[in-house]
Design brief:
single chain, alpha+beta, Alpha-Beta Plaits, ten-stranded mixed beta sheet, two-stranded antiparallel sheet, about 30% helix, globular, binds protoporphyrin IX containing FE
């Protein structure tokens, strides 16, 4: 289904590619050098405090991450090329071409080294369901992006929504983001925003949407990406538990998740390829 048929925004504000790399034998110095060359002219997000400048976003930005194998969890959709990967390179750019070029280059290098690359693609969009008041609640106090030293951990949450979700009219869909109250105005369920509210101050969050419409095979409807400090790892887990609690957050009745992939951010290709 296309966003326009769902009362959702049709605007695209940027592109992201999540390149999950599997490379059993690790890599050598030569491969590390070649990966560093791929990123030349782009901004390494690992060192950046705050959001991107217009110029950096136009040229493309990258973040290298190494898998935190023990933290990754399998959810409903089995996807070993993601869950068993050794690392991730997250790319973002105002246009697709520069980061597609990086992806092609990386695939050539990793294939030649005997590994493989699995790509999840998404587009950035303005929010569709969010009022001014919800912006104040859920985004105005949200944690801005920070460097890897400050927020070393990251989690990726690919997911689909079911056909039943996409067939609901938008007022019904929108209602899942808000708390629900009974006839005496007592809170009955928290809904998405309240169930996850404890994550607002300490978790930096980004979301991309499927590039070719929702409910389309071959692409997840959404890929979430979250960065946080070690001390907030428990908060992130509690937020996920709150969202997955179908009593407090009935939206999740309509969600099928891919693996919840965890990694830690690294600065250089040498660190990215280093054996654990
Ligand atoms: C940390 C606190 C969080 C808050 C306050 C929050 C709040 C919101 C709000 C208000 C929206 C509606 C956006 C719109 O207008 O389009 C939204 C969408 C969404 N959020 Fe969260 N969220 C949080 C964390 C998470 C987490 C941890 C996940 C993990 C998977 C997640 C997944 C999503 C998805 C997939 C959507 C798009 C849903 C759709 O359009 O059907 N959120 N969130």
């Amino acid at each position: 289904m296309q966003p326009a048929d769902l009362n959702m925004t049709t605007t695209v504000t940027g592109h992201q590619l999540f390149l999950f790399v599997t490379l059993d034998d690790g890599g050598d110095e030569e491969l590390a050098g070649a990966i560093d060359v791929l990123g030349e002219g782009m901004e390494n997000v690992d060192g950046v405090d705050g959001g991107p400048s217009e110029e950096a976003f136009a040229k493309g930005r990258f973040q290298l991450l190494r898998a935190e194998y023990g933290f990754t969890t399998q959810q409903q959709i089995v996807h070993p090329a993601v869950s068993e990967s050794d690392g991730l390179i997250r790319l973002e750019c105002a246009t697709l071409e520069p980061i597609k070029g990086y992806e092609t280059g990386l695939r050539t290098l990793i294939d030649a080294a005997g590994g493989s690359v699995e790509t999840l693609a998404g587009v950035m969009r303005p929010r569709s369901y969010t009022s001014h008041a919800m912006t104040e609640f859920a985004y105005a106090h949200a944690m801005p992006p920070g460097p890897g030293e400050k927020f070393p951990l990251a989690a990726v949450t690919p997911m689909n929504k079911t056909d039943a979700w996409w067939q609901m009219d938008f007022l019904h869909r929108e209602s899942f983001f808000l708390p629900r109250y009974d006839e005496n105005e007592e809170l009955v369920v928290k809904g998405h925003a309240l169930a996850s509210a404890m994550g607002v101050p300490g978790i930096n969050r980004r979301l991309v949407h499927s590039p070719d419409g929702y409910g389309v095979p071959g692409n997840y409807d959404f890929v979430g990406y979250f960065e946080f400090a070690e001390k907030d790892a428990t908060v992130f887990r509690e937020v996920m538990a709150g969202l997955r609690d179908k009593v407090q957050n009935p939206e999740w009745k309509y969600v099928l998740e891919g693996p919840e992939w965890w990694g830690h951010r690294v600065r250089s290709a040498a660190e990215f390829l280093a054996k654990p």
